[in-house]
Amino acid sequence: MSDTEILQPQTSIFEQHPSWLRLCLVLVFLLGALIRFHEIKAPGHLLDREYISAIFARAFYFMRNDQVQDWRRDIAIITKNQQPVLEPPLVEYLVSLIYRVMGREEISYARYLTGTFWPVFTCS
Questions:
Q1: Predicted local confidence at residue 114, as pLDDT
Q2: Domain total in the chain
Q3: Is 3 part of any domain?
Q4: What is the pLDDT confidence band of residue 86, given thresholds at 50, 70 and 90?
Q5: Is 44 within the bounds of a domain?
Q6: Does 6 reside within a domain?
Q7: 96: phi > 0 → left, psi -120 to 50 → alpha, else beta; which?
């Protein structure tokens, strides 16, 4: 190699086209979300935590639902009060609002909600 030849550093395709980087990141997040939502009804890895969260969400939902019988509401509240509070039950409250809007309780609503948290908050 002679002194007249100067090696230019290689630039990546993302440096040449910054919009491609954004496009690739969006595609990776969408692919991850599709994989997550495809398996949404499968049991999770933290079953005890999911169970406690479901108890909290049910109690919050029953407390504000006039169509639930009093004995069911009472049992839900008693059961909730017997569970350990691992963190502020913000997600469980949001899930209870979703139950109220949808008119029924289904655990997959909670999984959809928490499944949207990681791509949304990772991008921000």
A1: 81
A2: 1
A3: no
A4: confident
A5: yes
A6: no
A7: alpha
Mean pLDDT of 84-110: 90
Q: How many other CB atoms are found less than 10 A from the CB of residue 109?
A: 20
Q: How far apart are CA 83 and CA 102, in angstroms?
A: 26
Q: Would you say 53 and 110 are in contact if contact means Cβ atoms under 8 Å apart? A: yes
| DSSP one-letter string for the chain | --TT--PPPP--HHHH-HHHHHHHHHHHHHHHHHHHHHTTTS--S-HHHHHHHHHHHHHHHHHT-TTS-HHHHHHHHHHHHTS---S--HHHHHHHHHHHHHTS--HHHHHHHHHHHHHHHHH-
pLDDT of residue 74: 95
Q: How many CB atoms lie within 10 A of CB 100?
A: 14
pLDDT digits (tens, 9 = 90+) for 8-37: 666 776 677 778 788 888 888 788 777 777
* pLDDT for 70: 95
Q: With the C-alpha atoms ordered 74, 79, 83, 88, is the resulting torsion angle positive or negative?
A: negative
pLDDT, position 78: 95
- Asked if residue 30 is part of any domain, the answer here is yes
Name the residue range of residue 73's domain.
13-123
